[in-house]
Amino acid sequence: MTSTTAALMSTVDEIYRREIRVLQKSAYLDWLAFFAPEFRYRMPVVKNTDARADMIARDGELAYYDEDRTTMELRVRKLASSHAWTEIPPSRLRYFVQVLDLTVGEGGFEVVSNILVFRTRNEDQEHTYYGERTDRFVEVAGEWKIAERVVVLDRARLAAENMNIFL
């Protein structure tokens, strides 16, 4: 591992730890600060098929999330308001992120991670989300920001009644 890669890994670790703290508090308006001004957040649908290459919905196909800053701000503002009845009472969240790989490229770098998220609500609602997350970072005003996040869950069907959390 080069010294540049090691330094970036340390930076990513710090960014992810801060991000997890914000997400576990459901402070989604603050969470948007981790993203570049122009970003894309995508969570494609996973399909059961015979060919591994066809399991993940392609760009432009069905996704649980396919957001840019404008649509994500709308989602986040709704969740921060009293109009998000599906989050009353709010979910309790626990995030675990394991960095697997960091690749430096032109204009930034890409990080591939395993994710595990536990969500509980009320006394009897529990959901577990796990899969792979790929983040592309770019530098914005001297800080590393997420320009693109793609989350691919390992389950083909979500058991949750709603999807009001972000992975």
From TrEMBL:
Reply yes or no: does the keyword Oxidoreductase apply: yes
The entry's keywords: Dioxygenase, Oxidoreductase
Q: What class of enzyme is it?
A: oxidoreductase
Q: What EC number(s) are associated with this protein in UniProt?
A: 1.14.-.-
Superkingdom of origin organism:
Bacteria
A molecular function (GO) held by this record is: dioxygenase activity
- Family, per entry: Belongs to the bacterial ring-hydroxylating dioxygenase beta subunit family.
* Protein's UniProt name: Aromatic-ring-hydroxylating dioxygenase subunit beta
Per the UniProt entry, what species is this protein from, by scientific name? Amycolatopsis rhabdoformis
Q: What is the lineage of its organism?
A: Bacteria, Bacillati, Actinomycetota, Actinomycetes, Pseudonocardiales
